[in-house]
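Section 3.1: Structural characterization of target chains.
Under the original work plan, the team committed to producing a structural model for every single-chain target entering the pipeline before any wet-lab resources were allocated. The record below documents one such target. The sequence was received from the expression subgroup and is listed exactly as submitted; it comprises 550 residues.
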Amino acid sequence: MTDRSLFRLTLDGSSLTLDDLYAFLAAEAWRIDLAPEAVDDVRAANDQVKRWLHEGKPIYGLTRGLGPLKDRCLSPEEEVDFQRRVLESHATGIGDPFRDEIVRLAMLLRANAASQGRFGVRPELIERNLAVLNAGVVPLIPWEGSLGSGDLQPMAALGLVLTGNPHGIAKYGDDEGPAPLILAMAGLEPTFELDVEEALSIISGSTMLAAGTVWSLDRLARLGRICDAAFALTMEALRGETGALDPRIHDARGIRGQIEVARLARAMLAGSGWTTDEGRARLGEDHPRVQDAVSLRSTPHIHGSFREVHRFTSEAMAREINASTMNPLIFRNDEHPEGFEVLMGGNYDGSHMAHLLDMLNVVLTDVAGLCETRSARMISPRASYGLPPNLVGGNAGLNSGMVQVQSLQLSIIGQMRQQAAPASVHSLSGKDMQEDHNSMGNSSLYDLQVNIELAEQVVAIELMLAAQAIDLIRETMHPYELGAGTRELHAAIRRRIDPVEDDRFLRDDLEAMLELVRGRELSDLVAWFAPEAPERAARLTTGTRATAES
């Protein structure tokens, strides 16, 4: 889906894709429905749950309590009130709310998981969830509270809104308030009563963790492309040695991500006269450079590692978004006298995602650090091969140039490195030793969310510095041209901010660059130069996009 028209999706519990979720995130309007065949499976499992309830079969969360109270029996008369109590007692989270996009993803993912017919809930619960989602109501779910083992606290806050509990808080458009009021404003029934086991089906499953991971993957894919583009623009500014991008080097290593980054850099630099021996001679290099520093020569390797971790995480999440993430689970078994079995286990656990989030955070922080190192070279007269010190545009001394902009990068990198410490190794035991391992995935997600925003600031600064460097030496470099992609990238930056001639207040420039990085314009531009096959890169010679296509 390329436009922002109504996005439609039908859930059956098994065929959801990451591309579906990315399109959902990009859409301004959506309609998510439950597949008719899923309704039948869900109804059959729910009928079996009611028979077990009547028989008093010992089942966690159904005829027994939760957590350390798993051995306490519940009578049928207590079951309905138990659902309300579960939500209210578990919704203990505090702090700022999750992003709207993550909450919406969580609602969609929970509906998809429930549509498999393994939760034992009624179809009406899934349809209630989708009705709230489709209406545009956003539950306000506090960040703090989850241990990454079921996401009990945040999902309980979601459950309060779905049921219209006054303790649930939601927003609809510009209005925010108690769930019954907001639901009624959206044209929905203000309350919804849960049946047996349905409160547990809402809260058990690390769904906020899954939603946050999917959201992070979407944003990181775009950020990764922009980091690759920033490298190409810095190569122009430093008139880098492109021999290090030769495909034979990267094919010899055989790492797919590394090969892709080098290919993209070649495509963006295609036709560049700046990154040639003749171009380097324009600023006084009278002998071959032989090779560049590691921060230029090995960028494909480091950025490529980021791509590999992103790809690995994406493959894992492609499974997770169609996974049965609850405890207990109900399975059809034609050889069983009842036709169904119920099994208690640990599929709610979020450890796998916590580990993946920590890994993403580590490699993102390393890539951001590399951006800072390349930026430091541009302001250093010892490392920039002839660029003005501090990238000063006017009278040096009277003007300080952009040294403090690069110092801002250093500050940000210091913060990122603190946020990159893995949280998933810090399990804490809870609930009277019944839950004696917890993934701490909520902390992993929080740290990654912080570092995504910080990394966007770091790469925005590199782009800003590289564009400044190019403008400072453009007259000297005439008649040599930038590459096919770097020329467009530079133009996109200059449509937002002007070159710095004499010192001026730069925070507005930084904010404009950050807005450009966080939007879709740059990542879409770079994606065009990211060929799926090597032969497409070969077509990008000295022209613009139109020339390259012709």
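Residues 441-477 form the longest helix (37 residues).
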